[in-house]
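Q&A log
Question type: sequence-to-structure
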Amino acid sequence: MSEPNSPEEHPSPESPGDAGSSASGQSPDDPWAEAMTEQMGEEWAKAMEEQAPNASAAPGSSDIFQPLDGSGGETRPRELDMIMDIPVKMTVELGRTRLTIKQLLELSQGSVIELDGLAGEPMDILINGYLIAQGEVVVVEDKYGIRITEIITPNERVQKLNR
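Response status: OK
Response body:
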């Protein structure tokens, strides 16, 4: 048996074969390491070349950010047409309240639940759960409807959510 650290198995750092070793620290008689180092260098060079033309063109590109003014031409109505048929859920809320599970289980036919909304107060109109307007209840040909009396601004929406 030979010793684990014998010179036959592990060449010393001063051996003449190390003069041609690659910069990655691999020995010259390891062709796989040399091939990998060469391939990685080529891949990095290709990637940098591919990005160089795109990087210089991107900041000057005018189609990244479209102007917000009305100079968009005919594209704006066409873009809006794409979303016009998307259904949304509209609900009108009379008021809200909190119940315990016990109170909920005690409800029966004829029970009255007190809501936080006051009689005569405008009803909240929600689109997909978001408050967007307020209105008053109307009856049209034996059906309920809502007449919009106020469109809610974003600041008012936040205030309504916090109460």
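Response note: The CA atoms of residues 78 and 84 lie 10 Å apart.
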